[in-house]
């Protein structure tokens, strides 16, 4: 599994808490996955202090994704994810390596 490996799955997600400053995204980059709201919010707050437009997405199973921002296209979301990975190599040392691009617009894949 490398940086260009992709797993595609469909899951209903809802915005949890404050909306991103740029409004509803076509695609966003998730960099954390948590089972506790407090941990997800703490991560989002730390990312906001670094200048990211961080926000949370929630799953029906009660899990939370921490997102660093949104992009109008899939290619821009990939670029955002790679830049974040370059700037934050320490996040790869966590027990769960997690980077994901969430697309809200199916046409981005066409």
Distance between the termini: 24 Å
User: How much of the sequence is in beta strands?
Assistant: 15-25%
The main sheet comes to: 5 strands, antiparallel
Q: What order do the strands of the largest sheet run in, or round the barrel if closed?
A: 1-3-4-2-5
Low-confidence stretches: 106-110
Radius of gyration: 13 Å
In helices, the fraction of residues equals 10-25%
Number of strands: 5
The topology string of helices and strands comes to EEHEEHE
Work out the helix count.
2
Class derived from helix and strand content: alpha+beta
User: Quick check: average pLDDT?
Assistant: 76
* Multimeric state: single chain
Rough outline = globular
Question: What would you note in describing this structure?
Answer:
The structure is a single chain. The chain is an alpha+beta fold. It has helices at residues 37-49, 74-87; strands spanning 14-16, 27-34, 55-58, 64-71, 100-103. It contains 2 helices and 5 strands. It has a 5-stranded antiparallel beta sheet. Strand 3 (55-58) and strand 4 form a beta hairpin. It is globular.
Summarize the model shown.
It is built from two helices and five strands, in the order ββαββαβ. It is an alpha+beta fold and 110 residues long. The longest helix has 14 residues, at 74-87.
Question: Which features would summarize this protein structure in a list?
Answer:
single chain; five-stranded antiparallel sheet; 25% helix; alpha+beta; globular; 110 residues
List the helices and strands and how they pair.
Layout: E1 14-16, E2 27-34, H1 37-49, E3 55-58, E4 64-71, H2 74-87, E5 100-103
Antiparallel strand pairs: 1-3, 2-4, 2-5, 3-4
